[in-house]
User: Fold this.
Amino acid sequence: MTPRNPSFARVWLPRLLAYVLLTVFAFLMLFPFTYMLMTSFKNSSDVFKFPPRLFPYSAETLQWNGNTVEVYRFNIGGADRDLVIAEGERLNFGFFTTAENVNADTPRSSTILAQVPIDEAVATGEKTTLKDSSGADKEFDVYAVTLDGQPQQLLLAYRGALDKFVDPNEPSIFTYAVARTAEAAEFVEFQTGNYTRAFNELNLNRALINTTIVTLGVVAGQLVTSIFGGYAFSRVQFRGRDTLFLVYLGSIMIPFVVLIIPMYRLMVVIGWENRIVSLIVPWIFTAYGTFLIRQFFITIPKDLEEAALLDGASRFRVLWTIFVPLSRPAIATLAIFSFLYAWNSFLWPLLIIGEGNTTNHVLTLSMIRLSNAFADQPNLVLTGAAIAILPPIIIFILAQRYFVEGIASTGLK
Assistant:
């Protein structure tokens, strides 16, 4: 008898469990984003459907009697048929059952044996008295109703009006139901008009342009200042360099709330209040970025720099032709962090721009205004959220290789 291979239990089974767990957690992490993205393509009525559905659906319609009407799906005679509401042909129905099936507390919860147009049921003039859960007497009228071809005496549990649904192609085929609870015929349709409306009517196009300008300005400014600062603190010898770097690095520990008032007063004095430039210039210097680039520059061999200087290259050329190409992973990492920070910035734009100045709004401010004005239309709110979230995700996916390289190389060196 061949012995069982133990490598499966020791090696492949743990790997299989790891992949299953990772897949489950990945699904749980991605599902809210997927649902948000799908909801941004729904219409307002589809958002409030219960139970919730992932894909966007729209009601099927057709032309009938010169009007555009919605289509409802019913099973008649064992076959699914598409019916429409016959306007003005509602009928009052009686819902009948036996004394044993009547719910005296809430008659509409009774088990109904027959629903018949009230005009087709014959009142016997008799009444049946039943007791509810509190012991009170409840009277129910007795009617003669034909059930399965046999006349029976049943109790009228309650009355209700039902809509008439007819087959537009064969009007002789019809049924009665409540339009509010009837199953509408639907098909998957992505409402791309939500994005058109968000950009045109809700002014998100202006906010998107402002956010792009601010983000590009902050990212470019931080990259330039961090590269030059990192090179100066790592390669240029000058008096008090290390002390100055420690003081500069220590500014990271100062909370932003401590800087709000002096920064705001400075913007007012300069005249930059309510202007886009106030969202860019104060943030082009970053101690974290300088520290990140400096630490990466330190790992570059000095022999490369000394050889270039001996060949007559200036420090700027050394920086641009040697240090910057070799530091692309670290620069890409800093660019991603700067991009996410500038794109998602909310508190400072709220203070320096305010909600009233919609011309200079960034996306985070416009989202607040959008959520307040269209709280009853979650599809439009989530459309704005998708517009705000998709660009950072795309940027991260495109720069993921450099981001991973930056983490790996900084960790190894």
In short: The chain has a mean pLDDT of 88. The domain at 195-412 is CATH 1.10.3720.10 (MetI-like fold). The chain has two domains: 58-188, 195-412. The chain has 14 helices and twelve strands.
